[in-house]
Amino acid sequence: MKDVPITRWGFISPERAARQRELDIKAQIQSLIEGAQNEYERQAKTPEMPRIEEQQQLRQAGETAAPLTEERCDSAQECVAEGDSRAKVRIEDVLSLAAAKIGKEIGADAIISLERKQSGKADQPVLVSVFRKSSPDGLAWEKMAYQTNMKQLMPGSIAPIKELLMEGINRRIIRKGERVVCVEDESLGLGYKGQLFIFDVDQVFFNISTMHLTENLDSQSVEHVIKLAMEIAQEGREGRRIGTAFIIGNSEELSGSLRQMIINPFLGYPEEKRRIADPELRETIKNYAQLDGVFVINDKGIIESAGSYINVDAADLHLPGYGTRHRNCCALTKHLQCIAIVVSQSGGKVTIFKDGRIAMRLN
Known about the structure:
The chain is α+β, with helices and mostly antiparallel strands. Helix content is 36%, strand content 23%.
């Protein structure tokens, strides 16, 4: 009990203390953003500030804010003359300054800025600027930049941004265990004027990236299935351990190697009711995980069936120490472009197969 915080009313639970710490962190981040905005407004109201001094301040903040060019200043003055008060503060500049300050405060290892050259268009080049901390005090940052393509998903989704982070890992720009501040403007077409978020590169996300598990698949769905499989492995069902498996791939290609042994409980439901990422389906999936067979999920993250049996030859597969479920799932990934996420009933472990081999083990 000595580690439990004490208030004037007595002891509080660890859960409540953790929640309070989370609220304190959010309040601190909000304060930093407001401070950055106030600082930018103060600079905007001081026209006599030398341009070179302003550029030095931006570089010390992490070089994440775009420099003020003559063209931008003239444009802003014209807007002010026309009565547009929003020209005094550019949202992307405020976000850039806030990202630099937050990155320093939380000890971020990198700050990533995303900008699409042609706003709102899918599969168009995205400029990715990565600022890596090059000094322990967080005052010096090293800049790297490259262009890539990002597919456009539904507004409000951060899945395409996470795919860009995966690419950064594969380029060895981002490393396992690092904390990243990511900032983007409305040019990405995700439904926001601007967005800033903090991301920790944990082991699961790092391995998903380096093993290319989301190749030709919906990355968000793969993450959801892995987390769901880990919950099933840890919690079991009705007081006992259960084993199950999830196959993710092109449903048409998979259909020739699968057969339905029971009535498909997902048959006839519209796609929006069968999305693996839908939180309302989690308990339903955990219940159906007690059935024999596997879940089949297409490359868009839609559940096609449950209770499906794999019909594939696994005789030549060398996989010592694993049972029939693991062997069949592994063999399926060897013959088809798919991945298999298997929950072991005996050990409560999660194994992920791709290309006929073990890609990841999770306890």
